[in-house]
Amino acid sequence: MQKETITILGCGWLGLPLAQSLVKEGYAVKGSTTTEDKLEVLQDAGVEPYLVRLDPEVIGDDIVAFLQSDILIVNIPPTRRDDIVEYHIEQFSSLIDALGQSPVRSVLMVSSTSVYPSLNREVTEEDAADPESPSGQALLLVEEMLMQESGFQSTVLRFGGLVGYDRNPEKYIAALKEVTNPDQPMNLIHRDDCIKIISEIIRLQQWGEVFNACAPHHILRRDYYGRAADAAGVPRLPLAQSDTPAPFKMVNSDKLVSALGYSFLHPDPVAQQG
């Protein structure tokens, strides 16, 4: 049976290797970039390349052809700007309008665990309310927009902090003076798991769902940066002192594990980078 055609809106640090992986699995893949230089990179990866921007309207050379797919993966984070919430809503309103003229029947949105406030406990998919950051507020609103659409079915995937390969704390510790909130647990996921999880959602047709996706091991910030210092061969940073414990959340991914029968490739995502 012929596999679906998949369009990926946003072929960056996660989207490009995701596209490459899906091509290897036998899918026909279309991918977007906002820079002309990257069109050739996509082409070389076996991806049909398109120059597309959400500014906030969908702008591109051939949006109709770009959206001639069965599945759309939306991988664009909110743009950092003063009107981030309003702008992100306008971007998705324009995208949804374009989807109304397309054959896309399933949408997978890459979201973030920033939709959860720090409740000082474990959080599940039902705990998304009153995000603390403007980007979290923007994401939660556009999640709801997609899930309310009747012209296609959507699944929302809330990733923790993405790590792996060139995204490791050793690159950042030189700019830090101390480790703030050292006893705060972190919610992380390795890029390999992100790609595998998306592939499994498509394979198992898990549409109409909201899933958390964080590795089961929640390393403390003190250990995260301590490991990084050890790996870089530099002294460990001092730990910031505070009279009150820092608020935290530990994102629970049991729903995803159960629905997909999933085993994390990197249960401790920073145990070994790469």
Characterize this entry briefly.
By secondary structure, this protein is α/β, with parallel strands linked by helices. Helices cover 30% and strands 20% of the residues. It has a single domain, classed as Rossmann fold (3-Layer(aba) Sandwich).
**What is the CATH superfamily label?**
NAD(P)-binding Rossmann-like Domain
Uncertain segments: none
Number of strands: 12
Series of secondary-structure elements, N-terminal to C-terminal: EHEHEEHEHEEHEEEHEHEH
Number of helices: 8
Share in β-strands: 15-25%
CATH level 1 name: Alpha Beta
Task: Provide the structure class.
Answer: alpha/beta
Rg, Å, rounded: 19 Å
Structure explained in plain terms:
By secondary structure, the chain is of the alpha/beta class. The protein has a single domain (5-164, 188-216, 250-260), classed as NAD(P)-binding Rossmann-like Domain (Rossmann fold), CATH 3.40.50. The protein has helices at 15-24, 39-44, 63-66, 84-99, 134-147, 191-204, 221-232, 254-260, and strands at residues 5-9, 28-33, 48-54, 58-60, 71-74, 106-112, 121-123, 153-159, 161-163, 188-190, 210-213, 249-251. An eight-stranded mixed sheet has the order 4-3-2-1-5-6-8-11, with helices on both faces. It has a two-stranded parallel ribbon with strand order 7-12. A hairpin with a 3-residue loop joins strand 3 and strand 4 (58-60). The longest helix has 16 residues, at 84-99. The mean pLDDT is 95.
